[in-house]
Design goal:
The structure is a single chain. Helices cover 13% and strands 29% of the residues. With 302 residues, the chain is an alpha+beta fold. The chain folds into two domains: 137 residues, 3-Layer(aba) Sandwich (Rossmann fold), CATH 3.40.50.1700; 108 residues, Sandwich (Immunoglobulin-like), CATH 2.60.40. The radius of gyration is 23 Å and the shape is flat. The chain starts with 40 loop residues before the first helix and ends with a strand.
């Protein structure tokens, strides 16, 4: 699939050749060919110039047998965002996609909202977020990579897929390899800001709970909102999510939040004995708003 549209000259024939494979197809062979006689970008730019705020919705259809070989938005959607952002400095992009996409225009827009595939109430929900009636309270469950050079590449040709990264999957693989994603695992902004301080850790002697991590969280912004306090164990060369709690705070409010940490999440799997091995010795626990921003740390003895 091309990552940009083809430009065809009027009244001139063009030969289109498509190479494809039917291996692994569940629903049979099919090819879809679409065309757009006139670009709609100039019309969008004209509307953006006379608007106070421009909201651009872009999408990417995802489903069975629709694997991607790049992170580009299909068609001319990147060109659409670039043109609208050039015409209106208050441009917000809404991503109606099933996963990460490249954002070459990111530095030229005021904001990006990842709406995923939200279902039948999508219009009402995203309108509430854009107008500020509801907060964009989600946090990324995956890393958004900067480009195709990052992350695991399990298929390198030859008809064989190799998963040899071990337990260093997702955001842990990126940290192990020193790769900085566009947006890290756990990332998400809201309509206010928060500060974290006074970390404390209390270990548990028995049961499934290994520890309780407490931290003081303060809403330092101008409105009530919520944040997700995330706790990670620092297991070189990467961190690992071991607990999280969402907390709702009024403007200026601060509260001590306690996050329980399960013993299994701190443990490692031993293939020889087929059991989880609890940590012994010193373990560093870190707290922050996402996997790449962990300002507080505390070493605890198990």
């Amino acid at each position: 699939m091309p990552d940009r549209p083809w430009q065809l000259a009027a009244s001139k024939k063009a030969r289109i050749e498509v190479e494809y494979s039917a291996r692994g197809a569940f629903t049979g062979n099919r090819i879809q060919l679409g065309w757009q006689p006139v670009s709609l970008i100039p019309e969008a730019v004209a509307l953006a110039r006379k608007s106070g705020v421009a909201v651009v919705f872009v999408n990417q259809v995802t489903g069975e047998e629709m694997d991607r070989d790049n992170y580009a938005l299909p068609g001319d959607q990147d060109a659409l965002v670039e043109a609208v952002a050039a015409a209106n400095p208050n441009t917000v992009v809404v991503l109606n996609t099933g996963g990460a996409v490249r954002m070459p225009w990111l530095s030229r827009v005021k904001g990006v909202v990842q709406m995923w595939y939200p279902g039948s109430a999508a219009g009402t929900g995203i309108a509430s977020v854009l107008f500020g009636d509801a907060e964009p309270g989600g946090r990324l469950p995956v890393s958004f990579l900067a480009d195709e050079s990052q992350g695991v590449r399990p298929y390198r040709g030859g008809g064989t897929v190799r998963y040899d990264e071990g337990v260093m999957v997702g955001y842990r693989y990126l940290q192990q390899q020193g790769q900085k994603p566009l947006f890290p695992f756990g990332y998400g902004l809201s309509y206010t800001t928060y500060s974290y301080s006074d970390i404390a850790v209390r270990t548990a002697a028995r049961g499934d709970e290994a520890a309780q991590v407490s931290v003081r969280v303060k809403n330092t912004g101008a409105r009530a909102d919520s944040t997700v306090v995330q706790v990670y164990s620092a297991q070189a060369p990467a961190v690992k999510l071991v607990g999280y709690v969402r907390v709702q705070l009024a403007q200026g409010e601060e509260r001590v939040v306690t996050v329980p940490v399960e013993r299994r999440l701190l443990s490692t799997w031993d293939e020889k004995t087929s059991q989880w091995l609890a940590p012994k010795g010193n373990v560093t626990l870190k707290v922050g708003p996402n996997s790449a921003d962990l300002p507080l740390a505390k070493e605890v003895q198990f």
